[in-house]
């Protein structure tokens, strides 16, 4: 380690000395201990820059700095990091083109309660991936079996007929799975016919389970409950070392030559995101390759002004998969959120998901205080806001927009499911247990620009953002929706509707090809009513080169401009839903669908389908 | 809640107002939220006393205060408590005879970083126990099966041939098990012939596991590794609701009429001790009944001056089992540790275990700093001492006593397996990675007096204490050793030898009856050499009423007085090891065995057996 030089800055009238440090490749065998040692001293001996001599550096968990992390949409766990960027300011980490290889369950960059952090010019990869691949080499539709060849990179054992893939410091069951077509290096066409593998089924042998009483609402989907009454529905037999036969799968047998990617049981399989950014103002990642992560490429929570520029999630080492969850994900973030010049490919969930959080009022404690419950187990411990943030009160059965709002005085954290929010003003008189709250200040100005999003499982962009959203000049080729804008309450408790959305100059190539009957762009609500959820949406000048019919699916919208788009028929795959229209609209008003060029194969009377009560359709 | 009155005290020249609070039975439905709310305000609004109107109070986890707890010899977990006694001073909690019923995974009393805490006059129980019972109703030695009747109190499901017992907020597999004889309400005689049930066996189907490389030492017994290559060796079939047959057990079939107690898998089954006391000076528990806990009755760590008086661990509701682990356990405690007038019965581990911790030196970082590794996964995160404590350097192959000592300057916690200790003085020149350190100040003056210890699994007292130990006027009837004094390094990393031990005026009734060939009182080392481990031991004026021969087993001892003891033959059970002597001594010196009264049945030439090089035997 070399101190390159010491810079000076002035903060609150005090001169701050901050070191610029260069780490050389001498530490590459395990860079973790020296990094941790130096970073932990930064409170007394500040650092403005950490540079790495260009090289390949390994990072092991054994001497990493430990922190218990509640991470949205990940498992919650005690985890290690070599970069504990906690309560730091004005720090740049520059890999100068280095590759960082991580080992085991670690979070490479754990950034919290910090300001102005820049990470640039480096690639992140893992020695062993948090998923495994099986090449389908035979199948037997009559006997309902299929055979997989497992390469030497994926050690396993078989216990009582279940396969477990063993990694350095990690293991996973078959669990969640999806097929890849190695020729396209993308999700197999119509994969929903074959996957996911049906690993669990109900057990008939239960005794007196109904005698167990719970005083309060509990979450049957949480880890402590989800396996009650369920057992493995498949069995795995080893035919020879590295060749296994799977029995009991209930969908169609997966086709020979395709690759089954398996990442273990839901709830256990997101443990090592590449970047965690929380309660941080100003974060920038530039020229970054995330080749893999056991979770997301980046999970950002309660943060402000986040810019990802040439931040690429893309697989390495011949693997089908990059990250095992979303490429990026933003919860309760504000200010600017920018994704530009990025490639998000081959990850096992959305390219990005941007939303807030609904929390359920379970106790009205007095005129100023409510007890709230975290609805989804992957939102445990999420703190909804900071003092003086605007808190909206929502009753989704009445409206997708808040019926009242007030401001937060403070929040007392009791446990990961329960917090007490004290307000500056008195509670609305009509507040009821069961109502939801959302943070109205916890949404960003969102820009997604010049990005390539392809070959991943799930959506491109999943956005619940009532502030401003611009999606322009991107390329999409996703197995589900390219863009999904939901209002969702009952399952994920991800808050936010959509207003002021501009989707322009994008190319959509053969999205939604995995078998679902849904549009390439879709607006959707959980609640089946006519209330307005989405406002002021512009979809203009885009190109849809699509194998199937349904391009746009709209519901509960006030103000949609769908103009100057070009729709062509790709012929890449057979049509899945030939009776679909190109555009489907329900419970909406002030629609303007005009000046689009249609070169598709469908009959013209299928171009537009309208359900529900409609007015002001142009 | 009523504030009874406000007391005043003077601390550092400041007058401190502290409230005395009475909680009435109106809160009994779930006493947790009001308690948590009030206790969390205690930093600004101090409390000197919390009293409860006599009654039965329930405590649920849903609104309990959350803390991540690393607990010695327990699982490490994020857990809730209704009594977060953290950084408090001079507090008395008085149940006035109340019963506290806990629900799920909670720690009733979580006491840390506090001073002068008194808890008295209350009983602790759980709605659902953390173990389950099966009454053996049939067995078939030929087909190697046995049948269990499961009562309605123990809901279960069976998944892929494995039984899981489902509780409120908890579940466990069959896992660790032992037989109880319901007539004696004690561990079945010779239970080692039947139990533990052999639940796991090696799987033959592994692929490329040897390709996984670890850069550093790792713990194969830790949860992330222990199941690799192992599968369930038994299967369970439901014959009718509440009646199950177990196949595949490899020991003898358990006898009809006995009760199999099952507490789930080791490493997962200690999650809710009744009392956790850590880094606390002055703790007293008086007139307490711990009827149950999912772990220990009390686990105390790094604390000072602890007095348990009439602290009784004893089952309720007709259950065979009280706590599922030790009744009490003290790690790294100093000052006085007193257990007096206590009953410890029917717990599934020792009545008390008192020891320090060995940590392994893995890095010599510079002249003043060492990196140490926590050896056992249930010692994770244990901090070995505080500044200026004496740290002993130990190389057990050379000596059971430290070869050098120095003092701690500070300890940097990196993660639960790795800490960096900085010393005030330079390291010994001959220190080597692999050497152990122990805290020489982390042992107590121990008094165990007027206690009844019986009907539990495992030992009575397991003591590694080089300071002072007095064990007097107690009654023991345990299935393993009544008193075991070990020097142990390779498995549990529990430090401490034994010096200045007085064992007097106790009654030992039919201990060591579960099948092991060991003495009622035993001194033992892991390392097979002639070095002295134990010094100045007095065993005087005790009564041993024993069914078998071997009373005292001594090794590596310098200075033993075994005098004025009375040994009688109980006839309670058949002899297990008729060729044993009454006293077995090896590698010891300065032995004084005199004036004992022997009324046993053994031939007189079996009274004393001496192995190894001996001198100064009187």
Automatic annotation (TrEMBL), chains A, B:
<protein>
    <submittedName>
        <fullName>Right-handed parallel beta-helix repeat-containing protein</fullName>
    </submittedName>
</protein>
<keyword id="KW-0677">Repeat</keyword>
<dbReference type="InterPro" id="IPR011050">
    <property type="entry name" value="Pectin_lyase_fold/virulence"/>
</dbReference>
<feature type="domain" description="GLAA-B beta-barrel">
    <location>
        <begin position="132"/>
        <end position="260"/>
    </location>
</feature>
<dbReference type="InterPro" id="IPR056441">
    <property type="entry name" value="Beta-barrel_GLAA-B_II"/>
</dbReference>
<dbReference type="Pfam" id="PF23764">
    <property type="entry name" value="Beta-barrel_GLAA-B_II"/>
</dbReference>
<keyword id="KW-0732">Signal</keyword>
<keyword id="KW-0378">Hydrolase</keyword>
<dbReference type="InterPro" id="IPR012334">
    <property type="entry name" value="Pectin_lyas_fold"/>
</dbReference>
<feature type="domain" description="GLAA-B beta-barrel">
    <location>
        <begin position="369"/>
        <end position="437"/>
    </location>
</feature>
<dbReference type="Pfam" id="PF23763">
    <property type="entry name" value="Beta-barrel_GLAA-B_I"/>
</dbReference>
<keyword id="KW-0326">Glycosidase</keyword>
<dbReference type="InterPro" id="IPR057275">
    <property type="entry name" value="Beta-barrel_GLAA-B_I"/>
</dbReference>
